[in-house]
Amino acid sequence: MTVTQAANTATGEPGKGRWIGDWRPDDPAFWEGTGKKTARRNLVFSILAEHLGFTLWTVWSIVAVKLGAYKFSTDQLFWIVSLPNLVGSALRIPYTFAPARFGGRNWTVVSALLLLVPAVLLAVAVNDPGTPYWAFLAIAATAGLGGGNFASSMANITYFYPQSRQGAALGLNAAGGNIGVSSVQLLMPLVIGGFGLAAAGLFWVPFILLAAAGAYFFMNNLTSAKAEPREMVKAAGRAQTWIMALLYIGTFGSFIGYSTAFPLLIKSQFAEHASMVSLAFLGPLIGSVIRPAGGWLSDRLGGAAVTFWNFAAMIGAVLLVWQAMSAHNFALFFVAFMLLIGTAGVGNGSTYRMIPAIFRAKAVAGVEPGTPEFEEALRTGKRDASAAIGFISAIGAFGGFFINRGFGSSIAATGGAGAALAAFAAFYALCFAVTWFCYMRTLGAKAAPSLAAARV
């Protein structure tokens, strides 16, 4: 069925029909009468599918720790952990447009069922002691399919909610996905210990089928959903998009990178404490739960101020991790790593809050409030921010790949993670300086413009 046909056959009543032709979430009467219930139902099943996407995306962070029988080097294992991050980041751009192109319900069903590929192939790989390393790399790469789910899920939910309620809905959607990293690291050591390594993939199959069935029977497609690839191309040409992509590498990229690297770091650098891998889930749990605090603080203090000081805290946390590893102090290492992932979570919330504020400030600069031109500028700012967010979230996710490769390369070259940690601290120092220069600096603002006055 095409979108045109769907619009002709849609009943116009939310919940009755797979395609909805009449969807007006910003109309208060429509929203309270029928829209809210339908949007909430779609959000619930979107969160379920996205949560599973994150679990399959990061399942190799635990499986890699259990591959001792294959005699892979630590660097090779970090390659296995890092490839899903690389593929998932790249898939975020096309996945952003999928709900509008194919329908949110339809794409949620398809993207959920695609998770069967990495789940089943994982079980096949670990069931054969002769599986070559290249096959592990290829199969781990398919887990990147789960990484793309975040982009399509967030884009889809945006269409369902009125502008005034999108923040809360998207926050719940994002948190539900991010917690998937924690749930996989909590459950998989228990599942593998009880049923074997293949169960790390097969365990998720019934849940994937349940999520696909839930989306099929209870979600809807919207004919009003519009994909704007040209707007994203325009966004990619704006300096603010790339500045925020850099900062998002430092926040969300750090969250996903440290979360997936943590179990393997424990196993490789503190082998005598390998049993503590079962507590690795606490890192991503803290980072996910604390993410809304970054947004909350940003609403009160300004996103740039929170991001600025948070990068300073991340530098301190990295130095603490380095000190703990140098002294081979596992207790300090564990606490410092919790702090590092936690600050990444705060920054995740604050940088995400900055994006719409930046594009709004740029759009309304010099325009008189209360005029038709101002209202049009506000709409332009929202459109530009929406296009930029998809691009920024994709680029930022590549940080997960860089962090895992940084650890792997450092350990292979020097025997320890010190070189990687030094590089990460230097990168956060760069982000600290860029945040100040672009969004907090008042000195020399006439010569080099800054958005400090807008308190983004």
Automatic annotation (TrEMBL):
GO terms for molecular function: nitrate transmembrane transporter activity. Belongs to the major facilitator superfamily. Nitrate/nitrite porter (TC 2.A.1.8) family. Keywords: Membrane, Transmembrane, Transmembrane helix. It is found in: Membrane. It comes from Microbispora triticiradicis. The keyword Membrane applies. This is MFS transporter. PANTHER family: HIGH-AFFINITY NITRATE TRANSPORTER 2.3. Its main location: membrane. InterPro entries: MFS, MFS_trans_sf, NO3_transporter. The chain crosses the membrane at residues 43-65, 77-95, 107-127, 133-155, 167-188, 194-218, 239-258, 270-290, 302-324, 330-352, 385-403, 415-439. It is a multi-pass membrane protein. GO terms for cellular component: membrane. It comes from the Bacteria. The lineage of its organism: Bacteria, Bacillati, Actinomycetota, Actinomycetes, Streptosporangiales.
